[in-house]
Structures are given as structure tokens and as C-alpha cells.
Design goal:
With about 600 residues, the chain is mainly alpha-helical. It contains 34 helices and no strands.
């Protein structure tokens, strides 16, 4: 063995001594020059493939893999599968796994995390379940890293229950490749029956917890995965319980734990508990972490504590686009539109390039301020090449509609290649606000024909349009379609739209029965709409019944007293009006003076 061969052998024996891509390529050249024997060459090439995989060199990895004799060893398959997954080629990663199984080669424990990552990224729960079955058959379900990857997959794909069959996007691509014979040459592959080892309820609902419980060793990643899984799927109580159990296991929360927990308190609007976590963050030196900072900003903003939110932002030593977007969105959602626009300008001056979510956050501020600002922002979006983004386009449609320019809103909508539910909702609501009920209804029908499933918000827009157009029969028809055909439970706004329409159509008794039969808790505000109509029609008997209901729900509701008093006055029942006003004074009730702002040049 000469000195060159000895050097090559030493590098291959300690592959982590290769520190750069150029060194890996040079090693490849030396292997070709010095490895004459085929078996020695195959062994060294497999090691080289592992080195290329560590550097995510996709082209080089594929080239090296194709030089190996069929079938390649498991080490080579593992490296190629990992490289494909690391480079976002998830279908090819799964294809390699299936092809390897077709050769009868058993996977090792280091292979499954990459395969499960591909299933997660493709959002294909069915394939993931099959891989899980393969893991159990291979006896590797207790491996720490495989268990973490399984929990991560199930946590992220929980929402796909009921829609994860062959029609899912990732599985559709996967099946097409199977049909073309691209997955394997020798048959076999992944056994689809492996997925039948589990039931939907056992795996998808309780799967993460069960996987966690059977793990013999749990590291911080295991705990973070199960906590994040519960939090992301709205099971906040379970997530907090797991956090307490984590503390009992003598493990301290890290950055990822805290980033998962903080949104829970934002959802609960529990600023006190959120501040406790904030104190923990400061005491343990996480205060300068940008991810924790962004989570704290969101938490305070959702709890309507914008001053605290802005303070956290100012104290961050490094501000990335996530933290900027969080503080801007927090200002806008709390009605501080001018401050949100000021922060957006500061972000641009700081040379932080806005992303899609930046515009989706700031455009609503323009809708509440002036169309001039909205046009300036629209020009910035066009110059930045973001106009083809469906979320930004939907926000622009909403902005122009709210600012009074329905024609431009429609032009922007027509330029959207594939309008989603949000875009359709913005357009339909725009027509509703501008008093074009027929256009709103025709847009809704076209949306359904295009295969977009309507949401409760879309139906609210349609009902609002019907209400503005006085279309009673159409409104009742779509209310029935919403509840019976789509199984959507009506909320207060849906009931309010129908009751308002019936009241303005003069059908006061029908409106009274409709509200009385509501499937949700009644509020004083929905009765006030009907009480206003009673005043217009001088229906004192019904007005008195409604007033009693409002006072029973909200004894300090000024609107009920004032409207009933005005109804008495309109019917020239002055004594009743005076008695009611006196009763108001005795109860210490006083009507607050209203005020409003208008834009103008003075």
C-alpha cells in the first residue's frame, strides 16, 4: 500500500475529517485512481456516498449510486434516501425506499427518520402508516430517533384524518410513479397492508401519546414533539399537562418547548400565565432568542397587550422578518393601523425584505385608512413581483372593495389563476357591501361549480348580500343549504343576518320566532335589531316583549331602554316614555354620547 492509498484509507476510516465539499470531490477522484479491485471499490464508494450525503450533494450522490452493482448495499440506499429527503425530493426518497424493499433489503434504524420526513412533507398519512407498519415488522419501533420521527409525522398530519386516501396530493404523485414503474424494478416494495395494522382512531387520535408511552428512552426532542403535536392540533390542555410531566421528569423546557407553549396562552388570552413563561424566558437566558421573541410578541398581541408586544420587539438584539411581521400583525389586529404602517416602513428601511405574510398583515390596515396608501402598497407589491400570490391578491380584493372600488377589486380577482376560498369570500363580501346581491350569488354558485367548498364565512357573505338586497327567500334557501347540505352550524352572525332581513322586510313575527328558535345562546344585540324594526312599524306590543328579553339577558343594556322609549314617543304614548326614562335614571343608566371620525382636508 503506497502513501496515497494509505491516505485515502485513513479518510474513509474517519469520514468526518472531510470538512468541505471540495475535499469530498478530491477524495472521490483518489478512490477512482487507487481502487482497482471491484469489492474494494464498492466498499469505498459506499463510504463516499455517505460523505456526499452529509454535505447534501444530490447530483454527486446520484452519480456515485449509479456506479454501484445491483443491488447496492443498505448503507448506499440509506445515504441516497437521506440526500433526496434533505434536498426536498420527497417522492424520490420514498421511491428509493420502495425500490430497496423490492430487492429484499431490510432497512436499518437510521433510514426511517428520512423516510418519515418524506411522508410528512408530502402530507401522505396512508404511506406514513405503511412505513410505521414496516418499522414494527423490523422491530425498530423503540429506537429513539425513529420514535421521534413517527410522533412528528402523526402530530403534523392529524388534520388529514378522513381525507388521507389515494386522493391526497402526495399519495396521488406516489401512485402515478408506481403506475409508470419508476418505483422499483423487481416488484415487491412497500406492503400497503402494513397500514392496516392500526385503526384511524388508535393511530391518529391517540397515536402520538401511545408512541410516546412505549418509548424506553425519551429525550428533549421526544417531549417537544408530543407537546407541539398537541398544541398544533388545538389540544391545549393535553399540551400543558405534558409540559408539567416534562418538568416532573427533570427536563427543562428549551427554545422549542417554549415556542410551542406560548401560543396556547395567546389562544386562551391568558396574559398572566404568558407573563410567567416570559419570566422563565428571561431567567434562563432565552430573552434574546428571535423565535421566543416572536412567540412572545404574538402572545401579547393576541391578549391585546400591544404595548408589551412592542416592548419585547424593541428589546430583541436581532430582528428577522418573522419578528417584524409578528409586531406589524399585532398592531393591525388590535386596530393600531397607523402604527402598523409605520413599522412596515421601518422594516423596509432596515432592508428586511417583506414576504407574502408581510403584505397580508399590512393590507387590512390600508383598508381601514385611505385608498391612497393602499394604492401605494399595491404598487410596491407589483414592483416586488408578489401580485401572483393568491393570499396577497385576496387581501387586495378585500381592500379595494372596502375602500369603495369594486371594479378594481374584480379586475384583481379575475387575474387570480386559481381563486381559493379566501379569494372567493373577499369578492362575494365585496359585492355584498356594495349592494350587488345578484353578483354575490352568481359568484357563490361559480365557486361551488369550481369545486371550492364554502365555509361559514362565505355563507355569511351570501346572507349579507341577500339582506342588503331584501331577498328573503334566497337568504332562507342558502341558510338551509349551509346547515343541511354542508353541515355547518350557524353562528350568531348568520342568525343576525337572517333576522335583520326578516325585520326590514316587515316580517316581525317571523323574525321573533326565528330568533326564539336559535340553536345557540341568544344575545341582547340580536334582539336589538328586531327592536329597532318594531319602532319603525310602531309595533309596541312586540317591542315590549323584546325589551323584556333584552333586559333579562343584559340588565344594563341602554339600547333596549332608549329604543322602547322612542317607540312609545313615536306612538305618542308620552307617559310611558317618561316613566321609562325615569326608571333609567333611578337605575343609574345614562346614554353615552356617540362619536365618529371622518377623513378630510381642512
Amino acid at each position: 500500500m503506497n502513501s496515497t492509498q494509505a491516505l485515502v484509507k485513513s479518510f474513509l476510516d474517519s469520514p468526518f475529517t472531510i470538512k468541505s465539499k471540495s475535499q469530498a470531490i478530491q477524495l472521490h477522484a483518489q478512490i477512482i485512481k487507487t481502487s482497482a479491485h471491484p469489492i474494494l471499490f464498492a466498499s469505498r464508494i459506499s463510504t463516499l456516498l455517505s460523505i456526499y450525503s452529509n454535505f447534501n450533494l444530490l447530483h454527486e450522490s446520484v452519480h456515485v449510486f449509479n456506479t454501484l452493482h445491483v443491488p447496492p448495499p443498505v448503507r448506499a440506499w440509506k445515504s441516497l434516501i437521506k440526500t433526496y429527503a434533505s434536498n426536498g425530493c420527497f417522492v424520490k426518497s420514498l421511491a428509493c425506499f420502495v425500490q430497496m424493499r423490492g430487492f429484499g433489503i431490510s432497512p436499518d434504524h437510521n433510514m426511517f427518520p428520512s423516510v418519515l420526513k418524506s411522508c410528512t412533507s408530502l402530507k401522505d398519512l396512508r404511506v406514513g402508516e405503511c412505513v410505521h407498519g414496516c418499522i414494527i415488522r423490523s422491530g425498530m419501533e423503540f429506537d429513539l430517533y425513529t420514535g421521534n420521527a413517527l410522533m412528528n409525522m402523526y402530530s403534523k398530519l392529524w388534520s388529514l384524518v378522513g381525507c388521507c386516501g389515494p386522493e391526497s396530493k402526495g399519495h396521488h404523485v406516489f401512485d402515478k410513479r408506481l403506475e409508470r414503474g419508476e418505483m422499483y424494478r423487481n416488484g415487491g416494495g412497500l406492503d400497503w397492508n402494513d397500514g392496516k395494522l392500526f385503526t384511524r382512531s388508535d393511530i391518529v387520535i391517540d397515536g402520538v401519546r401511545k408512541l410516546f408511552e412505549v418509548m424506553p428512552v425519551r429525550d428533549i426532542v421526544s417531549w417537544n414533539t408530543v407537546i407541539a403535536g398537541y398544541a398544533q392540533n388545538g389540544m391545549f390542555g393535553e399540551a400543558l399537562r405534558m409540559l408539567r410531566e416534562m418538568g416532573n421528569a427533570n427536563l427543562k423546557p428549551d427554545v422549542f418547548t417554549l415556542s410551542s407553549v406560548l401560543p396556547i396562552f395567546a389562544e386562551y388570552v391568558d396574559v398572566l400565565r404568558g407573563k410567567e413563561i416570559h419570566g422563565y424566558v428571561i431567567r434562563h437566558g432565552f430573552g434574546e432568542d428571535v423565535f421566543i421573541g416572536s412567540s412572545l410578541i404574538d402572545m401579547y398581541a393576541n391578549c391585546m397587550r400591544t404595548q408589551d408586544s412592542n416592548s419585547v420587539f424593541r428589546l430583541l438584539p436581532y430582528k428577522d422578518y418573522v419578528s417584524w411581521n409578528s409586531v406589524i400583525a399585532g398592531c393591525v389586529q388590535n386596530g393600531l393601523f397607523d402604527e402598523g404602517l409605520t413599522l412596515f416602513r421601518q422594516m423596509v428601511i432596515a432592508e428586511i425584505k417583506p414576504v407574502e405574510v408581510s403584505f397580508s398583515s399590512i393590507i387590512p390596515a390600508c383598508a381601514h385608512l385611505t385608498l391612497l396608501l393602499g394604492r401605494q402598497l399595491h404598487g410596491y407589491i407589483l414592483r416586488g413581483g408578489f401580485d401572483d400570490n393568491v393570499f396577497i391578491a385576496s387581501s387586495l380584493v378585500d381592500m379595494y372593495a372596502k375602500c369603495g372600488n369594486i371594479r378594481i377589486a374584480r379586475l384583481i380577482f379575475d387575474d387570480i389563476e386559481r381563486p381559493d376560498m379566501v379569494a372567493w369570500t373577499a369578492m362575494i363580501m365585496g359585492y355584498a357591501l356594495h349592494g350587488h346581491p345578484r353578483d354575490a350569488i352568481s359568484s357563490f354558485e361559480q365557486m361551488v361549480l369550481d369545486g371550492v367548498k364554502p365555509s361559514d364565512v362565505v355563507f355569511l357573505a351570501v346572507l349579507t348580500a341577500c339582506s342588503h338586497g331584501g331577498m328573503v327567500d334566497e337568504a332562507l334557501k342558502y341558510f338551509s343549504i349551509m346547515t343541511q347540505e354542508y353541515g355547518i352550524s350557524p353562528c350568531l352572525e348568520h342568525y343576525a343576518a337572517i333576522s335583520d332581513l326578516l325585520a326590514r322586510a316587515g316580517k316581525l313575527e317571523e323574525a321573533y320566532k326565528f330568533i326564539s328558535n336559535m340553536q345557540i345562546k341568544q344575545t341582547g344585540s340580536i334582539w336589538l335589531t328586531l327592536l329597532t324594526a318594531c319602532r319603525s312599524s310602531n309595533n309596541i306590543e312586540l317591542a315590549e316583549k323584546i325589551s323584556k328579553k333584552i333586559v333579562a339577558l343584559d340588565p344594563k343594556n341602554m339600547g333596549a331602554y332608549v329604543l322602547l322609549s322612542n317607540t312609545y314617543s313615536a306612538s305618542e304614548r308620552w307617559r310611558d316614555a317618561a316613566n321609562l326614562r325615569s326608571n333609567m335614571r333611578n337605575k343609574g343608566l345614562k346614554k353615552k354620547a356617540a362619536s365618529s371620525w371622518i377623513e378630510g382636508s381642512f
